[in-house]
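Hi support team,

I've been running sequence recovery on a batch of backbones for a student project. Most finish fine, but this one hangs at about 90% for roughly twenty minutes before it completes. I'm not sure whether the input is malformed or the queue is just slow. I've pasted the structure tokens below so you can try to reproduce it. Let me know if you need the job ID as well.

Thanks,
M.K.
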């Protein structure tokens, strides 16, 4: 069976998977990223790819696909700008193509995840589909008429950087105020918790150091009925619903799938936003876009990156 190596590069770790043509993951190799400098990250990426290629299941690997944060030049594979990695014009494609004899393809990580989820996950069989990856940041991708949207300069699908609270929101990593990512990512949930903290002086959440408070802890506390966490979650869910309703107005998809780490909240998250999304949906018939939890979870990025390698690019 033919295989491809699919790489999901994140801000805290990099994963390389041995992926079959049916989307099955035959092996995985992961390494934490502590130093985000270009050379250090490339070294970590090469380590996991080397380990994957040494595995017996990868003996027929036909190519390597890499999903990286940021805007990617589709021809050279350079990372033109990545606020999460603090890279500008980083020659990722050039570096990897010098090392490996297999064809190497580089694309935005969220677009790779969208390709994977649409081909093998919750978007399978749909013509109009959106994936939202909700983690430290908030990425996404759009499929219209069965085709992944790439855009004029490979920038289509930056859902996280449309502004939903431009006058009173949090400052986004991209420099704008009130981006969807700043308000409705895992980082956004943490920010909401601190924004309402003064109203809950006895909150157990405040017993943690600021840099030790994670979105998962807040979500679990909200599910347990903690007043402080519940207030933060309500504000987070309101912002998430606002962005989702905008997406429905922009592209009228059949399905919006929520992926990434924060989506592990499952039905708790869906139940928090569905009614509000319906309220905010006006020009499109309400209830015609299904909100679902992504089926591939955190594996969508590597599966989609491998799919990109199989088909010779993000689009066939």
């Amino acid at each position: 069976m033919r295989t491809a190596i699919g790489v999901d590069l994140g801000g805290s770790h990099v994963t390389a998977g041995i992926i079959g043509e049916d989307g099955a993951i035959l092996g995985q190799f992961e390494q934490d990223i502590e130093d985000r400098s270009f050379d250090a990250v490339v070294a970590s990426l090469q380590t996991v790819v080397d380990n994957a290629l040494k595995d017996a299941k990868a003996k027929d690997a036909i190519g390597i696909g890499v999903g990286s944060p940021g805007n990617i030049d589709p021809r050279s594979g350079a990372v033109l700008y990545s606020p999460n990695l603090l890279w500008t014009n980083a020659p990722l494609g050039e570096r990897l193509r010098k090392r490996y004899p297999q064809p190497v393809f580089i694309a935005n990580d969220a677009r790779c995840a969208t390709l994977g989820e649409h081909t093998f996950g919750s978007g399978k069989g749909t013509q109009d589909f959106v994936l939202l990856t909700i983690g430290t940041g908030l990425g996404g991708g759009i499929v219209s008429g069965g085709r992944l949207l790439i855009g004029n300069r490979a920038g289509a699908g930056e859902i996280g950087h449309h502004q939903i609270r431009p006058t009173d929101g949090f400052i986004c990593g991209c420099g704008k105020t009130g981006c969807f990512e700043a308000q409705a990512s895992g980082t956004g949930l943490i920010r909401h918790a601190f924004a309402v903290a003064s109203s809950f002086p006895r909150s157990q959440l405040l017993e943690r150091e600021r840099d030790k408070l994670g979105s998962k802890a807040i979500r679990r506390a909200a599910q347990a009925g903690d007043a402080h966490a519940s207030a933060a979650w309500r504000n987070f869910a309101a912002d998430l619903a606002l962005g989702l309703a905008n997406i429905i107005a922009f592209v009228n998809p059949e399905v919006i799938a929520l992926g990434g780490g924060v989506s592990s909240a499952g039905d708790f998250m869906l139940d928090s936003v569905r009614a509000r999304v319906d309220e905010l949906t006006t020009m499109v018939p309400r209830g015609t876009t299904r909100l679902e939890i992504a089926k591939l979870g955190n594996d969508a990025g590597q599966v989609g990156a491998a799919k990109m390698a199989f088909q010779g690019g993000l689009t066939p």
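--
Follow-up from support: It reproduced on our side and the slowdown came from queue contention, not your input. The first helix runs from residue 38 to 54. No action needed from you.
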